[in-house]
Design a protein that fits this description.
Helix content is about 40%, strand content about 20%. By secondary structure, it is of the alpha/beta class. It is globular and about 40 Å long. Belongs to the aldolase LacD family.
Length: about 290
Amino acid sequence: MSHYTLNDITRPSGGFAMLAVDQREAMRLMFAAAGEPAPVGDRVLTDFKVNAARILSPYASAILVDQQFCYRQIIEEKAIAKSCATIVAADEFIPGNGIPVDSVIIDKKIDPEAVKRDGAKALKLLVLWRSDEDPQQRLEMVNAFNQLCHASGLLSIIEPVVRPPRRGDKFDREQAIIDAAKELGDSGADLYKVEMPLYGKGPQQALLAASQRLNEHINMPWVILSSGVDEKLFPRAVRVAMTAGASGFLAGRAVWSSVIGLPDAQAMLRDISVPKLQRLGEIVDEMMAGR
């Protein structure tokens, strides 16, 4: 059985320039906020995701898609460029307490053998990290996920995202990101997808120090995500994180969020999002060349 390696989802430089379009209810909320008439239908999300895949995948080393809204359509329409690997989200988001993703489990509907036959190279799992929830449960879920991936020769990408504790209101996001990395940074996955320290804001030196601290606790290659980071700051965030030891990015919002809700989404993706993704890819290559 063939086992994929990280080289299967990188650019020739060895860096990751990966695009996420697996946002689910969060994307529906983005369309509503941009003035799409309510209720925002599934079709709106599917069309946007398929268009984004078709237009942006030639400039990405891999693209992350979700089963709920777009995987089948993207595969059937051959919307992903041959040069771009496919990653499938294997997480099921459970809403609650007024938020679209209150907890996460491994999606029982995921069939690793089937997605591999379709050409996918990796699966991704979101792991919500709260200081007052059981670390053992998180580790068990990550272990089960790693086994699910590796038994089929797929790569395992974990995405720990920190949340305030269920009880009490004391929440230090920066410390939580470090604590999550201490707990899950050596958990046997192939790639760690992480939130950018300090939301990418502030003096470069402070950002670099925070990223270096994070790097010390992640014992596998890691990439940053763009949620929560101002898209104008994201190119710098990629550069700083890579200076500290990251190997690139897996990001959606920094590339396409500004075109959500604009008329003629296809033209906007071409004119606005393609140059952003190209620029980010160039930064990744440049930083890898410096290693």
